[in-house]
Write a structure and sequence with these properties.
This protein has ten helices and 14 strands. The chain is an alpha/beta fold. Strand 10 and strand 11 form a beta hairpin.
């Protein structure tokens, strides 16, 4: 299966579902990227071991796909995917070009959502670019640099500090102090506690990132494949059809639709059709998460 060839289509335009992994140097960004993608990357105990961003395509876990495959007795699963970018570490003064600041900020501008890795683990063998472990200080550094860069930008529709964000607290539950969690809750940002040294919390992160982009999955089936297609929540049927193929949006007639749970209960597509469970939906139908669609087009 060639994940690298698969990109998500959102709404009526095509975009890659791209997620940037950011944070100070030596907080675990490249370790997270390696866990997500299975790719070998250069991980070193010094700042700026990553210069150009590493890019990897990662399938979005969706338990419904396996259930549909088992029901329909087909061979192949094609999940939705997201792109993760491992971006060079940020330091104080990045907005003025300190460290690899200008490269960092240009790379982050191109992603749709930010995963900010914050170091909570304590390990004297891993250098910290600031003085000691202080997650709240580190988060404030990143937020300030993004805001300062935004003040210089004429492209107010592409503000770095307004991008959807998830915070990953890298450490064990014992490493993450109560005041850190309370601080993140006060700024209304989703967070995950993940001990990357123990490969913990990675699948949850992928799902959370997908949700932060307000994406849902609908499914298509054929005799050999069940496939997930990501779309923005609230997308109408013709635009969802355009995700499958651009011609389908232009020539859309109707969509045969059934929720995946109803399909499971019916025992299959033909059984659902015989019992009248498959609906015929028109151009104003808003596709729901978990819909199974067959597109009628001219």
């Amino acid at each position: 299966m060639c994940f690298a060839c698969m990109y998500a289509t959102v709404g009526i335009g095509i975009m890659k579902v791209s997620i940037g992994i950011v944070g100070l140097p030596n907080v675990g960004k490249s370790t997270l990227f390696k866990l997500l993608t299975g790719r070998k990357v250069h991980i070193a105990n010094y700042p700026f071991a990553t210069v150009d961003p590493n890019v990897g395509v990662v399938p979005v876990p969706d338990e419904r796909l396996k259930k549909l495959v088992d029901l329909l007795k087909v061979e192949n699963i094609t999940p939705a995917v997201v792109e993760f970018y491992d971006i060079a570490g940020l330091v104080k003064g990045a907005n003025k070009g300190e460290g690899l600041g200008n490269q960092f900020l240009s790379h982050i501008r191109n992603v749709a959502v930010i995963v900010e890795v914050v170091r909570c683990f304590r390990d004297d063998s891993v250098a910290h670019i600031e003085s000691g472990i202080d997650p709240i200080r580190d988060m404030d550094i990143v937020d300030l640099e993004l805001r300062l860069k935004d003040e210089e930008s004429a492209e107010k529709e592409n503000l770095l500090s307004k991008k959807p964000k998830i915070i990953l607290l890298n450490g064990s539950d014992q490493d993450v102090l109560k005041d850190v969690k309370e601080h993140i809750r006060s700024i209304n940002t989703p967070f995950i506690v993940a001990d990357l040294a123990k490969v913990d919390g990675v699948e949850q992160l992928i799902k959370e990132a997908f949700q932060r982009l307000n994406l849902i999955n609908f499914f298509t089936i054929n005799p050999t494949e069940v496939r997930a297609w990501p779309i923005k929540r609230g997308t109408k049927a013709p635009q969802a059809a355009g995700v499958i193929h651009s011609d389908f949006e232009r020539s859309f007639i109707k969509a045969e639709a059934i929720h995946w749970k109803e399909l499971m209960n019916a025992g299959g597509w033909s059984q659902a059709r015989k019992t009248g469970k498959i609906r015929l939906e028109g151009k104003e139908y808003i596709v729901e998460d978990g819909d199974v669609l067959f597109i009628r087009h001219g």
